[in-house]
Amino acid sequence: MGDPGEIDAAVRLLVELARTDRIDGIGCRASLAELADRHGPAGEGGPVHERSRWPRWFGYGNLQLEVCRCRVVEMMVVPVWHGQVLDHPAEGVGLSLLRPVLTAAGYTEPPTPKLRSQLLLDRESGGIRTSFVFGATADGFENGPLLDDPELVKVVSHAWHTCP
Ligand SMILES: [Zn+2]
Questions:
Q1: Residue 1: pLDDT over 50
Q2: Which domain of life does the protein's organism represent (predicted)?
């Protein structure tokens, strides 16, 4: 656990993400140039598919971006499990803390969850689907004991986009 101020900083970013589909300005439909202006150049990973140059992975810290050949973010993954939100510790950020924010921003649970071990709250807004994914079992397994307060594992945001 980080100190409470740091956790507050992480939660503030998650609230921004829930409301705007962006975290510290980073998100779907942002261009690499726009992000570089604000945060410096993104770290570059490899191509997403072995045989084509684009889309490619980029990132800031543990935040992963899939960027299409228009140099625009089409998917963002924010892993949180035992980790950080950008540089802020966010261990133990639970559903009870985030549910009011997510509900107010229009997130809903799918009527028929696919997995018992995973709880999902998502919304679609302006062609961007953002999902907050919580781990619902203590050991991550389907048959494991259910947690009282599911823990945020990751946030995935995806934009509908076809390169011209
Ligand atoms: Zn494109």
A1: no
A2: Bacteria
